[in-house]
Amino acid sequence: MKVLKFGGTSVGSVESILSLKRIVEREAQRQPVVVVVSALGGITDQLLSTAQLALSGNETWKDSFDNMVERHHQLIDSVITDNIKHSELYHKVDTLFEQLHSIYFGVFLIHDLSHKTEDTIVSYGERLSSHIVATLVENARWIDARTFIKTERKHNKHVLDSTLTQQLVRDAFSHQHTITLVPGFISQDKDTHETTNLGRGGSDYTASIIAAALDADILEIWTDVNGFMTADPKVIKAAYTIHELSYIEAMELCNFGAKVVYPPTIYPVCVKNIPIQVKNTFDPDGEGTIIKAKIKNDGKPIKGISSIKGTTLINVAGLSMVGVIGVNRRIFTALANHGISVFMVSQASSENSTSIGVREQDADAAVAVLNDEFAKEIETGAMFPMEAQSGLATIAIVGENMRHLPGIAAKLFETLGRSGISVIAFAQGSSETNISVVIEAAYLRKALNVLHDSFFLSEYKVLNLFICGIGTVGGKLIEQIRSQYDELKEHSRLKLNVVGIASSKHAIYNRDGLDLQTYREELQASELSSPQKLCEAVIGMNIFNSVFVDCTASGEIAALYQPLLEHNISVVAANKIAASSPYDEYMRLKQTAVTRGVKFRYETNVGAGLPIIGTINDLRNSGDKILKIEAVLSGTLNFIFNELTADVPFSETVHRAKEEGYSEPDPRIDLSGKDVIRKLVILTREAGYKAEQEEVEKHLFVPDEYFEGSVDEFWKRLPQLDDDFEKRRRTLEQQGERWRFVASMEHGKMKVGLQAVAQSHPFYNLEGSNNIVLLTTERYKAYPMQIQGYGAGADVTAAGVFANIMSIANI
Ligand SMILES: NC(=O)C1=CN([C@@H]2O[C@H](COP(=O)(O)OP(=O)(O)OC[C@H]3O[C@@H](n4cnc5c(N)ncnc54)[C@H](O)[C@@H]3O)[C@@H](O)[C@H]2O)C=CC1
Ligand SMILES: N[C@@H](CC=O)C(=O)O
């Protein structure tokens, strides 16, 4: 025998109610079924709101009432085709509506709405829907749940009298019928015979009570989702259906935000070891979720994450609480006596404060009750007045595999901490199946996302990228991300989500990911932005696993790294300004990244895609010491000196370097040696020395006056240098030498300058825009370590930035 319960969405539309009919009639061919139904979706709320309108003397209650009548009539007209059944059903339904109308009218006239009247009003939803379904389904009998679901009054609430109910259910179903239709939710007070109910969502409970009393083989809950999901799918795009849950896991999840099953439903069937199958009325062949005692171990430490907004923490504190027996008893008794439910408790072992989690709507009452309870202690100063902190949310991670598995709480804290989310209170019972944390509600979305990701509940790890600067490097990076996207998703389970793109004037954002084909047009059509607005937007989106990628040469953008890192956003910079800024600022950035648990990466600052900074770090981390660096670090300058011939004058080579994408946006930065100075300072710092740009000894080759004025003026004046360069070049050629702009560092002392190198020199054959770095270390002394290759250019630099992003993804 089976009990099937259909929720409001399953009876709320023509499509769903016809699906219900098919499901029930198919099942009834195999075994007897009891079908429990909720009110039509939205009707319970409308019954209550109409009552409030009537209570406030608002005439529009009649419109709302008419609307409910109309909705039921329309449904009947659409699904009941037999004329006799149609008119019989109309008669039943209209009789109920007449009664309901009289009750509303009474409320309207006397401006009074007691709990008793409200309970009566709200019962009509299920009474109406169950008659419709009983008529629609072939050969169904209808029984009023109030004849066997009995409640009694305790602590001002209607609670189930289980023993009496169980007996009455058995009596009511002693004659088996193939299909029995029962209105869910409604019940009756065993003493006063007033209509009561089992609480919102109580139809699940009705079904569970019947299933347990009749020892059903299974309880099926038919709803509009495919079962329990790993997290709220409205927040977590990657959430998926959990196919198996233990009773405890299901209880923990639904008790805490996952509204798939009404929490009291689990217990009656769990005691009888009756499985619960959650299924989707709109996808009847889908697998759904099965809840039972013994489930397969899928090896995942947690099964799901649930959450509730609207949490208030009340802090009951005072020095007199330490070691005093009975304080907690008084707290809970006082709250219970006022019908206030506490869903979380956290107390430090020092015992001088207890934090209590209550729902926001109960907060004021709870504070008043507790202030009253401890009035004497508060007056003498032995305890402090209650403090309530609102605007919070509670998250619970749930799973039986957490039991005896060390490190879960550590991972929870680490994951939240790395995302800049502070845990305000924490609770874990000794059953170790639920760990709950209270955080600021504004961080809920981010917290759920990072937790879902880090506990491997997500199919993909997601990295959210903000790309700033879409010139040579940034534009190429976006191209590379676009063409690698599917490969990374499929083979590395990494989703690179570009959630923000900024040019020098505009910025666009989309937390679900921007279209990397059309972003330039989108940017063009977007509002004007500024570095400040960009920073506010990136921080404001408060998005998990975020990385800010700077592909500009802008000082204003480099100045954003500090606030971004402080907000737990990693930074990848092709821009060299920050890493070569005053030493204290550079150290502050690095330190902030460490304390915030995020990354500050800038490998492409030196040698574009060449692994220079990483290698120096690896050498030092393994105990080596960098003694000397000799290098050619400018792709532009090397390219210029290699291109220069009798036919290609100096000014032309500079133009070509720009066109090839080697030079800085402002090529004077390359020609003035500034770019190389920055790079040398960065390398010297990575090598462990406290270096500043002013300390670099310079031997430059373009007179200073060429760097004064605007870039346009510079381009105009540049050909004036051609003759002199050609003269010098010819002399050099005759000597069999080549120019190289060499950077060196020995024991912290830095130097840059133009050198004429002979054929025997390791730098002589350095082709095109290549860079070379010779590292003399304690281990690489006689033969320095040599790193050589393309030192500039869109492809290799973008690839270096990409590699930095991947190192943050850590897959
Ligand atoms: N081109 C190369 O081979 C290498 C470049 N780099 C570094 O990469 C960075 C970018 O270089 P390229 O792409 O070659 O320069 P680029 O001039 O082609 O691109 C820079 C882009 O940044 C944009 N921009 C400027 N200010 C901005 C702001 N406030 N907000 C948003 N965008 C802004 C510019 O409009 C331009 O589109 C530079 O810092 C450079 O030093 C590093 C290694 C190699
Ligand atoms: N302008 C730079 C680009 C790489 O950092 C260079 O020419 O090396």
From TrEMBL:
What EC number(s) is this enzyme filed under?
A: 1.1.1.3
GO molecular function ontology, one term from the record? homoserine dehydrogenase activity
**So where does this one cross the membrane?**
none
Cofactor(s) demanded? a metal cation
| Function of the molecule | Bifunctional aspartate kinase and homoserine dehydrogenase that catalyzes the first and the third steps toward the synthesis of lysine, methionine and threonine from aspartate.
Q: How does it assemble?
A: Homotetramer.
Similarity annotation: In the C-terminal section; belongs to the homoserine dehydrogenase family. In the N-terminal section; belongs to the aspartokinase family.
Q: What is this protein called?
A: Homoserine dehydrogenase
Organism expressing this protein natively: Hoylesella timonensis CRIS 5C-B1
